[in-house]
Amino acid sequence: MGDEDRGPVSLAEKLDRLFQERSRERGKSLSANDVATEINIRAGEQVISGNYIWQLRKGRKDNPTKRHIEALAEYFGVPAAHFHDQQDTGANGTSADRPGQAPELLEAMQDAGVIAMAARFMDMSAESRTAVLEMIDRVRKLEGLPDVGSATGNGAGNPVGNNGRNLA
Fold it and tell me: How far apart are CA 54 and CA 31, in angstroms?
């Protein structure tokens, strides 16, 4: 299995991938200064500089503070753990750090749209989560996609468990 088959491993690779995804969403290139400015405006104070983000993205720095990780995670709509998890695909096509999970599922979990939906989903009540899952099941059926589990149960295909807090 070649290197192109494994997911991003280093902080720089992960950050660069998030920049590329966000740039595609915006339809124009996203700079480190753009990200820093937005983070600092949201925080109402100087949290991070564009130069430091650029150094992280290029691998020149690789040990950001918890505050920097949290700020970047919030900006990109990913959990802070995204920057810490090592993802590598094993010989059997599953994740080396999450045995039994197919690479397609892990890739989908990294997709910015999936992450954005999950972030909005997490703070909902159990009833609202169930309603959203039922809607998703209906849309999947309309698109002719296979059933992945019941919205009300907690079967293997249902991404909700532990009071809806686990999405993987």
Answer: 8
- Residues 29, 23: contact at Cβ < 8 Å? yes
What's the angle, vertex CA 162, arms to CA 74 and CA 134, rounded to 5? 85
Quickly list H helices, 1-147.
11-26, 32-43, 50-58, 66-76, 103-110, 112-121, 126-142
Both tokens assigned to 62 = 């690789």
Dihedral of alpha carbons 70, 73, 37, 121, sign: negative
Q: What is the mean pLDDT of each run of 10 residues along the chain (168 residues)?
A: 57 92 88 93 93 94 91 91 61 42 56 66 80 88 78 41 38
Reading the block at residue 152, the tokens are 């009300």
Residue 75: CB atoms within 10 A of its CB come to 19
